[in-house]
Design a protein that fits this description.
The complex is a heterodimer of chains A (about 110) and B (about 110).
Chain A lengths: L3 E2 L4 E5 L4 E7 L4 E9 L6 E7 L4 E4 L2 E6 L4 E6 L8 E9 L5 E3 L3 E6 L1
Parallel strand pairs in A: 2-11
Antiparallel strand pairs in A: 1-3, 3-8, 4-5, 4-9, 6-7, 7-8, 9-10, 9-11
Chain B lengths: L3 E4 L2 E4 L5 E7 L5 E7 L6 E6 L6 E2 L10 E5 L2 E6 L8 E8 L5 E3 L3 E5 L1
The chains are: A mainly beta (about 110), B mainly beta (about 110).
Chain lengths: ~110, ~110
């Protein structure tokens, strides 16, 4: 039962343009959401998070938007850089536990 | 945030053998977790490693197959026992450092032949 879904397995964007990565979830008990970036042969690295009491969180070039009614979150990267090329995972946490629920990841390629 | 050293980074093992994966954290973390990522799938939680007591396993995972130890707040091991090719996956440990401060090891890529 995939409670967190990333429906786009891959995305290609020109350098300098905006990258938008999407994530949908099904469980209304999720109250904290995170984005991780993963390079080959490395573990996931935390990127940005958002609590369910907010609808937007910004950190430099990275902004995460949360639409609770649609059970949807997105990660915007502006401007995209070649070093952003990696696999991006969204993850969700329930307000009652410690288990991550990860999406299957979106592979982002930023073309110079 | 905490830094986790995980080893081995990869291994190729014979069917029927066991492999122990280690994670060492450079600071104390309140909780540690073990995940598996099978090809083409997302990370799946295997268990929560509890200090000084038996790990808490998720549905579909059992202690006999994946024994876990956590003798202190900075170290944990996961053993994949009696391996079969279906166990070929990436195994990842994670530590929770304060509220929502999660860090990950670099992963172990296991191939069972």
């Amino acid at each position: 039962d995939q409670q967190v879904k990333q429906n786009s397995p891959s995305l290609s964007v020109q350098e300098g343009r905006i990258s938008i990565l999407n994530c949908d979830y099904t469980n209304s008990m999720f109250d904290y959401f995170l984005w991780y970036k993963k390079y080959p042969a490395e573990g996931p690295t935390f990127l940005i998070s958002i609590s369910s009491i907010k609808d937007k969180n910004e950190d430099g070039r990275f902004t995460v938007f949360l639409n609770k009614s649609a059970k949807h979150l997105s990660l915007h990267i502006v401007p995209s850089q070649p070093g952003d090329s990696a696999v991006y995972f969204c993850a969700a946490l329930k307000n009652t536990g410690n288990q991550f629920y990860f999406g299957t990841g979106t592979s982002l390629t930023v073309i110079p | 945030s905490a830094v986790i050293s995980q080893k081995p980074s990869r291994d190729i093992c014979q069917r029927g053998t066991s492999l122990t994966i280690q994670c060492q954290v450079d600071s104390q973390v309140t909780m540690m977790f073990w995940y598996r990522q099978q090809p083409g799938q997302s990370l799946t939680l295997i268990a929560t490693a509890n200090q000084g007591s038996e790990a808490t396993y998720e549905s579909g995972f059992v202690i006999d197959k994946f024994p876990i130890s956590r003798p202190n707040l900075t170290f944990s091991t996961l053993t994949v026992s009696n391996m079969s090719p279906e166990d070929s996956s990436i195994y990842l440990c994670s530590g929770r450092d304060g509220n929502y401060g999660y860090t990950f090891g670099s992963g172990t890529r296991l191939t069972v032949v």
